[in-house]
Amino acid sequence: MTTLATTGSDSGAAAGDALTRDALAVLQPGFDGTTAPDWVRRRIDEGLASVALFGRNVVTEDQVTALTAQLRAERDDLLVAIDEESGDVTRLDVRTGSSFPGNHALGAVDDPDLTRAVSRELGRRLAACGVNFDWAPSADVNANADNPVIGVRSFGAATDLVARHTAAWVEGLQSTGVAACTKHFPGHGDTNIDSHHAVPRIDVDAETLFARELPPFRAAIAAGTRAIMSAHILVPALDPDRPGTLSRRILTELLRGELGYQGLIVTDGMEMRAISGTYGLEHGVVLAIAAGADAICVGGGLCDEGTVLGLRDALVAAVRSGELPEERLADAAARVRELARWTAGARGDAARTEPAPEVGLTAARRALRVTRSGAAVPVNSPVYVAQFNPEPNIAVGDQTPWGVTDELRRLVPGSTDGSFTGTDAGALALAAAGDRRIVAVVRDEHRHDWMRSALDTLLAARPDTVVVEMGLPQAAPRGAAHIATYGAARVCGVAAAEAVVKG
Questions:
Q1: CA angle, residues 296, 299, 300, in degrees to nearest 5
Q2: Is position 268 annotated as part of the catalytic site?
Q3: Are 51 and 81 in contact (CB under 8 A)?
Q4: Measuring CA to CA, which residue among 31, 350, 56, 34 is closest to residue 179?
Q5: What are 262-272's pLDDT values in tens digits?
Q6: Handedness of CA 128, 129, 130, 132 (dihedral sign)
Q7: Catalytic: 196?
Q8: pTM as predicted
Q9: Chain centroid to CA 155
């Protein structure tokens, strides 16, 4: 990560001039804590138009509501963004697991009305907490089943399915006055590297990209998405030199020009190594705005005042040196303020939305796929839950619980569990289970050789084992019963536990 030029002072920029206000306006920073820090409130007064909430800022919905009220005391039309995809990537339910299944489960059901209802209820909850900008949905077509960062965050591998559900998700969310941010343009689905760590590269021809990756974004634009998020991916068929976030060809010529998109363009997190490790954080931010981005997402990792001041000053300096046209920065800031006005004008739409608190569980139950090797064998005595834990990707994080244990303990009192990882996971789970029936919970079995071997060990010794796949169900179903949830949201675990008990 680059060293920032300032670490909390106001050097390099006068706090009141228009250029400085524009530089602050394009930033969407995060911060530490569950209340509004003084420095954030001060910068809002100086022109900051957006802030972002992450899992570290969330304890309860009442606490988030109080936090956003503190922030809006400084600026009534403040954009408060959150990375709330529902499903595996949740911030509002970071401590419990999501009340809504994610995209892959909704794609498995393939009922756009259900997708619209789920995102509408999510939007109602976000708006009630004072959050008016959601960095979702993912419109990536999961063309690569080994993708380490998209997977169940995608509606599926079929372009037309992803397109219709992306549009439905956008419509549902925005009907509550919460702005959607469709991501990750021009499509992160065919990558085998996580851009949190390095620059992924998609080596397909332009014809494939236009036919496979772009239709979901066209659908989102037609549905009125208020924002689109760029991807830190290199697509040589479009731009051989710069990743999407820093590419004028991709953001200005393709997205603005050829696709006709006029809403806000937001970057993915700029401290991700694909940008900060290659171009440097401050220089990367300047390049992104110059390429056509309007808002800078930062704060998933760096969330201090020095980061904000350093980026502000870098943008001001780039304008003064001639590296960044002043009118480009002014246009970007104007687009941020326009979105802020839209959300302020749409406030109250959520209050007119009828609550549907059970829609998430209903969707999770509909998504479930159960494959049995024989007749159903109901569970009526305590079981042993062996959960095989892969290393989580950064987008999902490691704060959010997943699995079926809590619900199985409620349905079958006395059930116990253990978590296992590595080459001896199967043998250890078998020993820990004793004579109890085993429920093996996996996540993306097809991507982990050790997980596949663990199931081999369990099923060889205990063929009555029930397998619950809570990731991408690419591996062939096996076990006495194989339950695919298409995601690891809390409600997916509830639905799976119900199916386990039924046998």
A1: 115
A2: yes
A3: yes
A4: 350
A5: 999 999 999 88
A6: negative
A7: yes
A8: 0.94
A9: 13
